[in-house]
Amino acid sequence: MLCYFFIIYLICFKKYRVEVYKDGFYFNQFYTWKGFNGYEKINGKIKLIGKKGITADIYLKDKDGRIEETLKEYFKH
């Protein structure tokens, strides 16, 4: 029974760290910004809009504004 609670904790409540780089971000694998059409800010979270059939939409929490600055720099081209 304790094992089930641990699994639920890992799936639902554990916060996973995302490493942000100039060319993309790492979360279990490396995602490049090329896989996304753009982004929008919704209630303090950043929604990366995925390309149809390639990547799904991904939501990231931006605490210090670093992710948004990186995205502005990349998507301004």
Overall description:
A 3-stranded antiparallel beta sheet has the order 1-2-3. A 3-stranded antiparallel beta sheet has the order 4-5-6, with helices on one face. It has helices at residues 2-13, 66-75; strands at 19-20, 24-26, 30-32, 36-42, 45-50, 58-61. The chain is 29% helix and 32% strand. It has one domain (2-75). The chain has 77 residues and is α+β, with helices and mostly antiparallel strands. Strand 4 (36-42) and strand 5 form a beta hairpin. It is built from 2 helices and 6 strands. It is elongated and about 55 Å long.
Which characteristics define this entry?
2 helices, three-stranded antiparallel beta sheet, alpha+beta, 77 residues
Apparent shape: elongated
Rg, please? Answer: 15 Å
Using DSSP, what is the number of strands?
6
The percentage helix is: 25-40%
Topology as a string of helices (H) and strands (E): HEEEEEEH
Please give a quick description of this structure.
The protein is an alpha+beta fold. It has helices at 2-13, 66-75; strands spanning 19-20, 24-26, 30-32, 36-42, 45-50, 58-61.
